[in-house]
């Protein structure tokens, strides 16, 4: 693969270890902090006297993170479901069919990949307020499907373009309609591409901050990152509780990411190359 | 099915995506453009003011400094991770370290963590009595122990380092995957030509990584220009106005000061910078790609 396969240089290992440590230490620091006694004022890395998992129960119940996590789960699941459906349908058309205005429509979507969210948030708020949708989950779910539909369509189009044309033509000669071809012939092979899309969109919508910050002012609707931002603003003295909350907010996505990372990174790169 | 009927089918497939994309992205973006030419508090009648919001924004010290801060963040979010990730990916691909995959997964992990979590966590790490300063004091550097995010000199570079921390692993992963795709024959040819490691890097590795480099730079530069989340949960633009970024000004003017037209003008300016950066990076990469 490279010029000198099999050579192990101590230098490479050392570099990799140094950067792994730089990545791991802050994460470890927060996890350790979250397990200290509730009123501890910790200023460095310290192993707790015993593991105080009660901090998590406290954040979950007393600080309402249970409710915030459920909000995030509802919003992210709805965004993933919507994005996957509309992106698969649109990616199928862009990737396998020819129609007038195809390029124009596709470039319009591509522009959506780089439009910063800050550039749409002001009118979006005004319009959703007029439609009486602010302070509902729809005000976060619907715009976020719109944003992710751009990337999702782009992503699924890249996959559908790799499918051999003969496969589609053969199914078509057998009398299968376009929806049947998509469902029976193409989707079974699309699972890796779909999995990467699901992970990415779930991660992005779980972690999104600006949209829920603007749309949701009711405390009981807050998503997990929003809840954490307000919690850290109000209870800056409760360091341990804040750390426990931070770990809880990050954990679902980190776990999903670790479970799927191999395909995820590969898929990410495959998509990037086709760009 | 008639020929006319067949023509309708592709549009039916594309329609659902546009039913979300048009009203929640395209139309609001067009409205932002229109709004930027108006003076509006969000409630009463809007008044057309021509280019006033743009003149005000471009003439404002605060807006100019926000964009200048964004440029500083580009260096930290973009240039720093890319420059660190290149040797990291090349050397770890060459050495085939056992456990290398696990370590690279660890390094990319910050990408999966919410910016709010990252900001809140680093807020503690960089605090006056946080671990960084505890470490400095432990080695006798008490004078160097400062409130990093509260310092006029160090707040912006500190935010930059946090960004670099979150983006390094993504760059490593992109480059590492890209390296696997460079044909071994190119390296053999370079070896036959007697190329040293440096020449081999310039002649084979770097051109082979043009695609991943463009993706890495696009993603990191856009994150730097959109650093709203991180700033909002750490410094809120302070101390003074040292860490104000365009996204924060848009948020404040629209949702705190009731100056929606002014916010829209800054949003348009930010979009122009983002479009220009994305276009420039990908154009350079296209030209360099073999």
In the predicted model, the low-confidence regions of chain B spanning at least 5 consecutive residues are none
What pair of chains forms the biggest interface?
A-B, 104 and 109 residues
Secondary-structure content class of chain A: mainly alpha
Strand sequence of the main sheet of chain B, in spatial order?
A: 1-2
| Low-pLDDT segments of chain A | 1-7
Q: Terminal Cα separation of chain B, in Å?
A: 45 Å
What key attributes describe this structure?
heterodimer; A: 275 residues; mainly alpha; MetI-like fold; 2 domains; 12 helices; globular; disordered N terminus; B: 290 residues; two-stranded antiparallel ribbon; 13 helices
Report what the structure shows.
- With 275 residues, chain A is an all-alpha fold.
- Chain A has twelve helices and no strands.
- The radius of gyration of chain A is 23 Å and the shape is globular.
- With 290 residues, chain B is mostly helical.
- In chain B, 73% of the residues lie in helices and 1% in strands.
- Chain B has 13 helices and two strands.
- In chain B, strands 1-2 form a two-stranded antiparallel sheet.
- In chain B, helix 1 (3-35) packs across helix 13 (260-288), helix 2 (52-59) packs across helix 13 and helix 5 packs across helix 11.
- Chain B is globular.
- Classes of the chains: A mainly alpha (275), B mainly alpha (290).
- The interface between A and B is large, with 104 and 109 residues.
């Amino acid at each position: 693969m490279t010029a000198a396969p099999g050579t192990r240089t101590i230098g490479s290992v050392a570099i990799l270890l140094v950067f792994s440590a730089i990545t791991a230490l802050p994460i470890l620091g927060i996890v350790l902090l979250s397990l200290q006694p509730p009123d501890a004022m910790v200023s460095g890395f310290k192993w707790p006297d015993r593991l105080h998992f009660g901090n998590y129960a406290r954040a979950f119940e007393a600080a309402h993170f249970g409710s915030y996590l459920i909000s995030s789960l509802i919003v992210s699941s709805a965004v993933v479901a919507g994005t996957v459906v509309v992106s698969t349908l649109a990616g199928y058309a862009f990737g396998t069919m020819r129609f007038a205005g195809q390029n124009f429509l596709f470039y319009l979507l591509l522009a959506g990949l780089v439009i910063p969210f800050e550039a749409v948030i002001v009118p979006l708020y005004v319009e959703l307020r007029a439609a009486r949708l602010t302070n509902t989950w729809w005000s976060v779910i619907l715009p976020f499907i719109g944003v992710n539909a751009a990337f999702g369509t782009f992503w699924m189009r890249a996959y559908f373009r790799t499918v051999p044309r003969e496969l589609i033509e053969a199914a078509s000669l057998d009398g299968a309609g376009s929806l049947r071809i998509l469902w029976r012939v193409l989707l079974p092979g699309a699972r890796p591409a779909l999995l990467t899309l699901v992970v990415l969109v779930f991660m992005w919508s779980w972690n999104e901050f600006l949209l829920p910050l603007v749309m949701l002012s009711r405390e009981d609707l807050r998503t997990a990152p929003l809840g954490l931002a307000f919690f850290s603003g109000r209870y800056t003295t409760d360091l341990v509780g804040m750390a426990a909350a931070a770990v809880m907010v990050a954990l679902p996505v980190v776990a999903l990411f670790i479970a799927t990372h191999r395909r995820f990174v590969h898929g990410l790169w495959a998509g990037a190359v086709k760009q | 099915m008639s020929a006319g009927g067949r023509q309708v089918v592709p549009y039916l497939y594309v329609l659902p995506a546009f039913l979300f994309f048009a009203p929640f992205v395209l139309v609001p973006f067009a409205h932002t453009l229109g709004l930027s030419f108006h003076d509006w508090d969000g409630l009463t009648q809007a008044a057309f003011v021509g280019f006033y919001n743009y003149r005000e924004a471009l003439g404002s010290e605060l807006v100019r400094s926000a964009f200048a801060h964004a440029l500083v963040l580009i260096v930290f979010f973009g240039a720093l991770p890319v420059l660190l990730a290149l040797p990291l990916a090349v050397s770890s691909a060459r050495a085939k370290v056992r456990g290398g995959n696990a370590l690279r997964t660890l390094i990319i992990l910050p990408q999966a963590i919410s910016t709010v979590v990252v900001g809140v966590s680093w807020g503690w790490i960089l605090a006056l009595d946080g671990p960084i300063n505890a470490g400095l004091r432990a080695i006798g550097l008490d004078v160097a122990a400062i409130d990093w995010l509260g310092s006029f000199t160090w707040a912006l570079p500190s935010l930059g380092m946090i960004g670099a921390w979150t983006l390094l692993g993504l760059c490593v992963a992109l480059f590492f995957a890209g390296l696997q795709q460079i044909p071994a024959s190119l390296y053999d040819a370079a070896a036959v030509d007697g190329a040293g490691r440096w020449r081999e890097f310039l002649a084979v590795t770097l051109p082979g990584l043009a695609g991943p480099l463009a993706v890495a730079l696009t993603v990191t530069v856009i994150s730097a220009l959109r650093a709203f989340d991180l700033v909002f949960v750490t410094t809120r633009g302070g101390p003074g106005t040292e860490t104000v970024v365009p996204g924060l000004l848009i948020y404040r003017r629209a949702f705190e000061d009731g100056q929606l037209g002014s916010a829209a003008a800054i949003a348009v300016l930010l979009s122009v910078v983002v479009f220009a950066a994305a276009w420039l990076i990908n154009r350079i990469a296209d030209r360099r790609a073999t």
